[in-house]
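chain below, 518 aa
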Amino acid sequence: MPKTMKRLLAAALALTMLLACTACSSDTGSGDTASAADTSNLNIRIPDAFATLDPHNWSLDTDFTLCFQIYEPLYSVDDETNEHPVLATGYTVADDGMSYTFTLRDDAYFTNGEQMTASDVKFSIERAVASAYLNSNVSTVEAVEADDAANTVVVTLSEPTPGLIEGLSHVLIVNQKYVEEHQDENGMLGFNACGTGPYMLKEYTQDVSVIMEANPDYREGALAVDTLTFQLIVDENTALTAFEAGELDIARFNISAWDRLKTDDRFGTAELTTNHVTYMIMNLNQAPFDDPLVREAIACAVNRDDIITMAMDGMATPTYTLVTSLMTSYADIEPDYTYDPDRARELLAEAGYADGLDIGQIQAPSGTYFADAAVVLQQQLAEVGITSTLQELEINTLVANAMSGNFGMCAMGQTNTYDMSWVSTYYGTEHIGSMNMAGYSNPDVDAKLQEASTCMDPEERVSLYQALLEQLDEECIYVPLFNKTLCIAWNANLNYTPTVRAERFADVSWNTTTQEGA
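prediction:
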């Protein structure tokens, strides 16, 4: 990838890792939890800001969720990493793994009436490759060839890419003609939207709501829900009040009142472990973190359960690794450094600090759960003789410090992509100055990362990643803390299955039989 693209990608990821109009026209700017009159509508909470409906230039998770209702990918991948054809009917992989040939469906139409073509798919993939926000999903794509007559697309790669389908699941297909007619001078679509998906944009009010209506010509037929209303409600207590009053039908929460919702039979609830990891970074190029014994002592001083209780109201899952089971080719390992304060003291003494050690500042983004976690961790370190001061910084300042190596230890979080090749961003030498904020460099590990990322044999690939993660865990480069829990509640009269990945609300329906009998 060119250095300029890497810098753009790093900047885009840095803005998002701490936080997860028109329908083919021009831009436009109550009571019981459910009733029979409301069954054509669905009211959904947006917990974070939304900025665009451009499917290739979004930086916020909410944006992708919105785009996912209007646009579709060639393939989708579920929470169990199973592939599902959407706009493609199948694909084949060349024997050398260097190209994929996709056969496209012939009944997909954009809401401007244009039939989807292979040229549209080619245009969409190339637009994603050129995007600082999506390039990491398709960074190995070298060329795309479209055959409109055969309705096929050939994607040629710079190296074997076993995670290509996962990457392409984030590339939503646009109509080339529409984009060229409606993009601005910077090539952005903003809230101009025209997809093949089940919904179309009806109207939006910036920082308030987005309303979508069913696509009347959707190939799968009439939808169970005619209108989706996404409401931006940032404050958790305000969202809770609206949900309990029936003004919201589906909502994601991060609140201490969660136990109350779980015991209310008016609602369905689910707690899902996310692909987001919160972790501590130690600057390997700065003393005392260049000493592995000190890093190991810090790791053994950390009680993740207490951090989760104090900083997350218990809504997280402790982790000892930077990857999750949601990732393709996931490999599980037994951690070398679990909570053991006595061992921490022994390691500290072995490092020459039997009388204690001051590690300087721990940086954390101000006013966030990262800062809350850092406070608890600071206390835990003090209990084994490691003292520090907490420095709370504005998010962008902290990220800039971390990328430039202007820190000793800091709290960080990142939403992983869903393929294990993402591990290289934490440990690969080429990512120093961007996501490899620890400054870790090891030619042997670089070679192993490359071998694992390009291995086309699924079982062998898992084995390669397992051996690699065990090696990295032994070196104790980072201190992973927890994966956030996604708490979702919904009206019990809905037929709804929550997912960690972007949800497709066209699959949701009201159970009218239950409502009529209530």
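Residues 1-37 have pLDDT under 50 and may be disordered. The longest strand covers residues 267-282.
thats it, cya
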